[in-house]
């Protein structure tokens, strides 16, 4: 499973990128707002840092305007992936922009039917939002499973980019289901390294080591 980082925080992306943990980046208007940076400037910086696709989201709601914004975003760098919302207009923009050779991430997906439409419209990635479904007592992971089955049934090449990931457990479940990509905030990716038994075990080893009076260096 590929790891994308869901943030516009450049130092946080750089830290994970140095560890080989970053296969791409996703941003959205809220994350750009949080960064306090200009969208073009910060997105360019991220694209220069990371080899994989960097999603930058359009904010227009009508297809022609989305297409114009998408074309502008695509000029930022070769690895830009244009992100459009899963609306009827977003699907129209997806079709036109993907036919022009761009990578497209269709976002705000909350149903298997929406994912089916995005694949038909030529999306490179579909972004089903797990956490926001869980927030309203629906099963976000079940949606990932459904989309996996449908895409496999018909050999769609659109990649499932599990999004709105809130916990390390979401990452494990997405990997088990077979999501192609998971995008998560840096703190969730880091939390995957945590285990109480690792901490306890290390503590015990270090206490015993102290008793030996030895040094390695
Ligand atoms: C994905 O591309 C979105 O930017 C993101 O995963 C949304 O996550 P949230 O529901 O935690 O805001």
From TrEMBL:
CDD domains recorded for this chain? Transaldolase_FSA
Q: What is its main location?
A: cytoplasm
**InterPro entries, per database record:** Aldolase_TIM, TAL/FSA, Transaldolase_3B, Transaldolase_3B/F6P_aldolase, Transaldolase_AS, TSA/FSA_arc/bac
User: What's in the GO CC field?
Assistant: cytoplasm
Q: Which GO terms describe its molecular function?
A: aldehyde-lyase activity; transaldolase activity
Record's keyword terms, sorted? Cytoplasm, Pentose shunt, Schiff base, Transferase
Q: What's one GO BP annotation on this UniProt entry?
A: carbohydrate metabolic process
Asked if the keyword Cytoplasm belongs to this entry, the reply reads yes
**Family, similarity comment:** Belongs to the transaldolase family. Type 3B subfamily.
Q: What does this protein do?
A: Transaldolase is important for the balance of metabolites in the pentose-phosphate pathway.
Q: What is this protein called?
A: Probable transaldolase
Q: Per UniProt, what is the name of the gene that codes for the protein in this document?
A: tal
